[in-house]
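Moderator note: this is an archived Q&A kept for reference. The question asked for a predicted structure of one protein chain; the sequence and the answer are reproduced below.
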Amino acid sequence: MFPLHLIHLNWHVKYGAKHWSWGYCSACQDYSAARVQDYTETLYLNGIIPLSRGKKGKVAHCDFCRRGLEQIWNWEGIPFADWSPSEGLAALATKCGVPETYIPTDPSADTRLHSLLSAVQKSSSLTRLSLGPFGIAGGVLAALVVTIPLAMLLFEQRIVQPQVDEFGFTMLAALISVIPGMILGALIEIALRRGSGAKARLVEAYRDYPFDLLRLEELSREYSKAVRKAVQALCDEAPSHSGPDF
């Protein structure tokens, strides 16, 4: 799997102007605040070299679980600066002209929490993570920093006696270390991005739409280790406070 990650193509979606609207999330099985944004798709080589630009358009996401939405109350919505989750969904519904009957009444419903957990698991899976240049470059640099002095020491102490001079032996050792360094750097980057990304998603959802952490922890037992660790980190660090009025 990892050699395929070292050279890869991926579509990167760049989001532009955004505003708030109201939509129905089929995963949460309820209505929710919707983020509507302009977007442009670009094909990249290894996440840094743009190759071609794809389609442009608008996309809407559930602000709770961040899944795509198709049923939107109004694609134009209201300016992004005119509302924040701390004001509560009732305030957004009023500004969007949505009747009170469409406002969720139970932010801790199991269906909504399952939607959040499954979305976090999907986004943090190994197949969904595309590597940038930092892990690979960092792994190569670390390998060279360790290998070059070590090779010089081995040669000077005559621990090894190759058929080439010191410079040639050092360069050969450095070249051999590059591939393991790339793989190690990729592994470290995947581990760091996977854990931090899952935790960040949960922290943001809880900050904007506080829910029952004990119930979230119970439901998370059905999910991957990465999700369970992220939930535990949220439970350990989350401040005790009441959320906005729904």
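Archived answer notes: The helical segments are 2-6, 89-96, 110-123, 133-156, 166-208, 213-219, 225-237.
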